[in-house]
Amino acid sequence: MVLKKILKRIVSFVLCFIMTMPLLPPMEVNAADSLRGESIYQIMVDRFYDGDKTNNATGEAFRYAENSEEDYRYMHGGDWQGIIDKISYIREMGYTAIWISPVSDPQLWGIPDSSGKQWPTAYHGYNVFDPNRANRYFGSKDPQASKDKLKELVNICHENGIKVIFDVVPNHVGDYLQGIGSNAHYTNGTGLKEGTQLQPAAPFNNVSWYHNKGDINFNIEHPHTSTSTQMLEDHDLGGLDDIDFDNKDAKGAMFDSIKNWFTYTGADGARVDAAKCMKPSDIHELQEYLGVVTFGENFDMHVEFIKDWVGDNAETGMLDFPLFQAIVNDFAYGKNFNNTSEISLQSILAQDYLYGTHLNDMVTFIDNHDRNRFLTEAGGDVDKLHNALTFIFTARGTPVVFQGTEQNRGNANGQGINGIADTWNRWSMVTKDQNGNVIKDYFNTSTNTYKLIRTLNDLREKYEALSFGTQREMWTSMHTYAFSRRMDSGKNAGQELICAFHNSKGTDTETMSIRAESSIKAGTTLVNVMNPNDKITVSQDKKVTITLTGDTSKIYVADENAGDTIPVTIHIRNTSTDWGQNVYILGNCAELGNWDPSKAAGPAACPNYPEWILTVYIPAGQKIEFKAIKKNAAGNVIWQSGDNRSFTVPASGAGTVNIDW
């Protein structure tokens, strides 16, 4: 998998600079592989890009404008050709997989509500009309041509080294049935919107195939009990007609319809909609039948509950909603990282053991089509957005990012939505006026977030530990959280990165121990891969000191360009201090803070007052200039008087320096 990703970069480079070279053969993508090591771009097809205007819905079901909340309920024209047209935009961000909207033909209009109003239901694809027909608005009005367009999309993605994940909807079809129990029936209403389908396509128009028990009452879902879980499984999700999986014909027809899409197109994986409303064993059966990796949607913030949908007898992975909520709390709202009484990074990650060997199969995210955009939750603070993105690209699991995040835009019109957000967050990547004239194109490849995502994807490609390594917590405090990712076995055994995050506008300096499992040695120089000028050195007692300012993060790895380091022990004699003061060494190299008192080496130990002792690892042969300083907790500094002291670090062994205050 790593080799395939490297080949992808090589191909891109060659095509850019040596246009006369022949094209390399298309890269193959193995659909049976796990999604571990991938990064996923989530595409809501109708809101991505209109590559073929001939398949657009007509009449009242279609709108260009996105001025009101109601506008977002209508179809806007995005399609599979649009993804093909913009494949380079996705590829150049470094993504290795896309997750696209459901592919089956949708219900165009809902049945009238209690007030007689009909709402359009087609654009997102979750209200299904015909599970066996490809979406006519994403492909073509001709059923076979539509199937072929979907297959073309998958083929072109594969040629670009990108896997394709279909959003599949086994739990339900659209909202057609009225009444419950023996009174359940299809309407014979008249005077309805043009194109209204009164019942799903055959054979799914069999009333006995559905539970017909009415809607789920989410007010009694918690605490989770066998009764509430049963309600989730056999009641309708927001009116959508719930398939009865105890009916073998119904279950078989639904599973066959989904299987056929993978057989025909060769798609690589499935995101299972509304997994919470199905038994884990049923979803596992579907996964085995499809022969591809799946991850499901269980809209719940309790690890103890969603773990039952993850594992060898369930799904490969799940969308990590508990971690999502912790990310919003800690990175968007700046809450306490180590608050164990609420949903925080520490409280959620402490339960990782419940996922067993499927930990890296959990799919992590900062927002999606059902939630407010992260930037809206963060009050428009792009630094917070970057911090959260860096977290999901470095933490355990497989990251997925919702389309448009890279454009630094939150919900449209700045509108926050409580509950399930399904309007303002689903803006189109090309904004148009009511006549279809382009107002703004959101395919800018120069934004700082587009570039950040490309960098983060490059890091995951370069460092296997960021995709497959064991994650171990190193430090947690109110505003600082740090962990290591380490390969404990395999070809890159010992590869390790230290990732540190900060979630306030102030500055914090934390000294933390290298994990006992680590093979990083004392004296090792670590470099921040996001800023090569930022280097730290592992102390003699195997600790590192990291300073973080603002909503920011740092990712440290052993500096491959650093030479040998030598332990230099500095004795600072005759140094009296006041209560609360400590002694540090400040100098002209990174190991001594580059004359920045906030980054000085220390504090020194004081085994025999007033003599202080500090050992610092410094590159062999380097000539250093330095001074001692006294510093208290408030940051007040007193400098040693006189000229700078100097010392040349020996080429081997150890060095000793004696100075007087």
Termini separation (Å)?
A: 58 Å
> How would you describe the shape?
elongated
Radius of gyration: 29 Å
Question: Could you name the ranges where pLDDT drops below 50 across 5 or more consecutive residues?
Answer: 1-32
Beta-strand portion reads 15-25%
**Biggest sheet overview:** 8 strands, parallel
CATH topology of the largest domain: TIM Barrel
**Structural class given helices, strands, pairing?**
alpha/beta
**pLDDT average, as an integer?**
93
Q: What number of domains? A: 3
Order the strands across the largest sheet as they lie in space.
10-9-8-5-2-1-12-11
Number of helices: 14
Query: What share of the residues lie within helices?
Result: 10-25%
Query: What is the level-2 CATH architecture name of the largest domain?
Result: Alpha-Beta Barrel
Number of strands: 28
For this structure, what is the CATH class of the largest domain?
Alpha Beta
CATH superfamily of the largest domain: Glycosidases
Concise summary:
The chain is α/β, with parallel strands linked by helices and 661 residues long.
Report on this structure.
The chain has an 8-stranded parallel sheet. A 6-stranded antiparallel sheet has the order 15-16-17-20-18-19. The protein contains 14 helices and 28 strands. Mean pLDDT is 93; it is low at 1-32. Helix 9 (321-332) packs antiparallel against helix 12 (382-394). Strand 18 (525-528) and strand 19 (531-537) form a beta hairpin. 21% of the residues lie in helices and 24% in strands. The protein has 661 residues and is an alpha/beta fold.
